[in-house]
Specification:
Chromosomal Replication Initiator Protein Dnaa, Chain: A, mainly alpha, 134 residues, 7 helices
Length: 134
């Protein structure tokens, strides 16, 4: 008897509940799944072709293109809600795909390591799960 596949939207909702997330966050995570998968593919394609590039910068640039935000906006000191959320998602993505330390990712985004830690606590599990299930 084969195992039944859990639908992605239910899977991510359960993952959000497990990690103390809200239903609002899990809904956004489900919406972003195709974006994270495409970002991971693009990241790996670029790094395979040019292994000498700084992988944190590659992840940042791939994320900026995927979320349609300029590097200047991404690095801005603004705390505007949508911009901050996007920055956090891309920082968490960079940690997941590069395996870099919080300090390395923070330097790439001109942020303190604690900001990267907060972003990873908030989004890394969703991103890792999305990429692994692809």
């Amino acid at each position: 008897m084969g195992m039944r596949q859990v639908p992605d939207d239910l899977f991510f909702t359960l993952a959000a509940m497990k990690h103390g997330g809200t239903s609002r966050m899990s809904a956004r995570a489900v919406v972003d799944v195709p974006r994270y998968i495409e970002m991971a593919r693009e990241f790996h394609r670029i790094c395979a072709a040019r292994p000498f590039l700084n992988h944190c910068i590659v992840a940042r640039d791939v994320g900026a293109r995927a979320f349609e935000i300029s590097i200047d906006q991404l690095l801005a000191r603004s705390r505007e809600g949508d911009q901050t959320e996007t920055r956090q998602k891309i920082m968490a993505f960079a940690c997941v795909v590069t395996g870099a330390s919080f300090r390395q990712v923070g330097a790439t985004f001109e942020r303190d390591h604690s900001a990267v830690s907060y972003a990873c606590d908030k989004y890394a599990d969703y991103i890792r799960t999305a990429i692994e299930r692809a």
